[in-house]
Amino acid sequence: MKDGASILVVDDEERVRTLLARLLGEEGYHVASAASAEEALHELEGGSHDVVLTDLMMPGMSGLELLEEIRRGHPETSVILVTAHGTVDSAVEAMRKGAFHYVCKPFKLDEVRIIVQRAIEESQTKHELAGLRREVHQRFEFSNIIGKSKPIQEVFDLIRRVARSTSTVLIEGKSGTGKELVAKAIHYNSPRTSRPCDAINCSAITETLLESELFGHMKGSFTGAVASKKGLFEEAQGGTIFLDEIGEISAALQVKLLRVLQDHEIRRVGGNQPLKVDVRVIAATNRDLAEAVRQKEFRDDFYYRLNVVTIHLPSLKDRPEDIPILAQHFLAKYAKEAGSSVTQICKEAMRALLQYAWPGNIRELENVIERAITLGAEGEIRVEDLPDPLRREEEGGRLDAIPVEMSMQDVEKAHIERVLRHTGGQVSQAARLLGIDRRTIYRKMQAYNIRKD
């Protein structure tokens, strides 16, 4: 804990500075000193210190004023006040304003050692948390939404504008298109960035548990509720809550969430007291909620409250020009993590990536590239490093790969099946690609016993 820890001692009395510097230096800390608060601020500009140990009463700027400056400019630094017995009340007030602790003159050396050690532990924890926050912010920067295609550039432009607002957002898209990444990019590029962003998959747990997770519960409200508990809306106060798979919740829960969106208040399960919440809601679904409303499968009033701003994420097959960019991004990422020398994707493998329909979208592409780097040879990703479905796509794209003994009917059947896989089972789109009408493709599918899935 002492290795590398740095302490700045601030006192207008040279005798006190010398005593504290010697004591802390003997403990193995790096110690610097300053004769005034102004000198201390200059020292802090030149480099960071884990702890500042400062006298409370000094000529010029006081220790309390120095504390306020440090809190503003160096929030990870812990501040300990040195005070005479007559000014203990001021030191206690300083703790309310963010000081870590105080020590009284004349010093008890063991007390100084213990308080300084604890202050360093707190400072290093703050530094670690700040590092984690920076890492999270970097992970969800807009630049991590990768692609140059027109559909994804339109999405990028929309989320950049939405991030500045407080509006409720509905993100629509197939599984694996990056809905959670977009939700968190909105949060971490918004004015709420310093507050929590909590996520929950609404289809992954039972309705009873989901209600408790969202709104919290009171002690004794149900079997097993041995203590009161805050829900995500309370925990995320001032921040954002991401409700994934919102299309799967019951009508009863839709009503309760509607109340949150309208009145900005919740009630814990088993509680009567309304609690005000300030939380931005971002929801996501892979369903067509507008169609679900028309079919009376989703409440229209909740849908309209939820659907203030809609972001539709395109499937990967609808943005094929982004496949090479994404593949290279995942290649660089996983090759670095694995310490692999793989630096490129061969032409045949890239052709297979481009021909495949990607029903699992970006998530599936990422898994394919990670697998190829893990199992493949050094240097480049080859066709044989890809899973069977992608190899079949690449082979199916070459006329010389068709056995000469195949009949025209077999070739036609295989090609229709391949085009249907490419369109994800969309018959109308497959018919357009094949240059035939819907009636013809349905007739051929029936004749060849082809299922669209």
TrEMBL record:
GO terms for molecular function: ATP binding; sequence-specific DNA binding. It is found in: Cytoplasm. Coiled coil: none annotated. Residues 145-374 form the Sigma-54 factor interaction domain. SMART domains: AAA (SM00382), REC (SM00448). Residues 6-120 form the Response regulatory domain. GO terms for cellular component: cytoplasm. One of its GO terms (biological process) is regulation of DNA-templated transcription. Keywords: Activator, ATP-binding, Cytoplasm, DNA-binding, Nucleotide-binding, Phosphoprotein, Transcription, Transcription regulation, Two-component regulatory system. Transmembrane segments: none annotated. The modification 4-aspartylphosphate is found at residue 55. This is Sigma-54-dependent Fis family transcriptional regulator. It comes from Tectimicrobiota bacterium.
